[in-house]
Amino acid sequence: MSISAKPQDQTQNQIIYPLSQAEVPQELAENVILSSLNDLYDWARLSSLWPLLYGTACCFIEVAAMIGSRFDFDRFGLVPRSSPRQADLLITAGTVTMKMAPALVRLYEQMPEPKYVIAMGACTITGGMFSSDSPTAVRGVDKLIPVDVYLPGCPPRPEAIMDAVIKLRKKMSDEDMRERGKMSQTNRYYSTAHRLKVVPPILTGQYLKAEARQAPPKELAEALGLPITPALKVAEKELTE
Fold first, then answer.
1. Which pTM does this prediction carry?
2. What is the b/e burial string over 22-55, where b = at least 16 CB atoms within 10 angstroms of the residue's CB?
3. 43-177 domain in CATH 3.30.365.10?
4. Structure confidence by residue, pLDDT tens digits, 27-39
5. For the chain, domain boundaries
6. End-to-end CA distance of the chain
């Protein structure tokens, strides 16, 4: 007489798996999305990037083309903002000079966390054509602010900007909201305080009001038959002296 092992297997499965798998009704499965809070947090951020309207050279023409209707920048959820306090993406489009460096750093520091940077163009990444003979071009914007995505080209086409945004979105989707505190800015990046020396203006406009300039030259006055005015006499005296 053989004894079946089926009841014993069922008892063992009940001990290992005391709760059976929950079955979601078909009507509920079609209307409810189950996910983690971290995935929802990442999805909301990568779907609502707000770039700062910042451009210093010809690369910004390609960014402006992205905003147009042909490439439709807004379908990625990117809404250009004019204030750094409302932006979380900085696309450094164009050459950065030593004079522009403090302003760029100031704009970056005014952006709220978390924030991202795309270095666009050869001039922004390495100095480009100005790296050999220009004393004012910055040889890489990563010397000023941290860069997340490098976009080479001179200039990169709008399709390349779309690819860079997609790569940045993939990076953002892998981030954990519990590590947000570790990503915050811990030090102040390179910035230079301007030490300007105030000097009086050279062109004050007062020379236009001089008496010698209120009358035409003597030859022109004689040719036109104009009377000799006191201002013309002063002008003649200045010429003779």
1. 0.60
2. eeeeeeeeeeeeeeeeeeeebeebbeebebbbbb
3. no
4. 666 666 666 777 7
5. 43-177, 206-240
6. 141
